[in-house]
Amino acid sequence: MADKDLQVREKQEVQTQAETTRNIPVYIPAVDIYETQDALKLVADMPGVSPENVDIDLRDDQLTIRGTVTLEGEGETMLLREYGVGDYFRQFTLGRVIDQSKIEAAMKNGVLTLTLPKVDKAKPRKVEVKIA
Fold it and tell me: Where is the SHSP domain (predicted)?
């Protein structure tokens, strides 16, 4: 792999359409999307987000991902922060090739994986001609 293939990507802050009640930045999570014969797999980095703080909404072919970070643990006080902490927000428009009723999500170690199955393709068939 050449050096130019490995580049650090800076976090991008986003302005959401709705106002938030938290006074922290909202970032666009970096994603990778893979395609297999049966599905698309979307992998989003959302460090600091626990599985119960992920909200995935699907409405009118619009897939919305929200992740809320927990700033400090119980009994903890932040002394030094060198990493930009904030919530995550990203939207995708899904095409007709995705079977929206079968979308699955999993979250592990701050990485969200969405499996977006493709619809069954129309199978070729032969039409039988009946004798009238």
Answer: 21-132
Contact (CB, 8 A) for 51 and 67: no
User: Cβ distance 117 to 101 under 8 Å?
Assistant: no
Question: Residue 61 — φ and ψ, nearest 5°?
Answer: 65, 15
Does 6 or 33 have the greater pLDDT score? 33
Torsion angle (degrees, nearest 10) of CA 45, 93, 101, 31? -10
Sign of the alpha-carbon torsion through 106, 30, 85, 7 = positive
Structural domain includes residue 17? no
CATH number, domain containing residue 30: 2.60.40.790
A 10 A CB-CB count for 1 gives 5
Confidence of residue 19 (pLDDT cuts 50, 70, 90): low
Asked if the model's pLDDT at residue 36 lies above 60, the reply is: yes
Residue matched to tokens 């959302």:
46
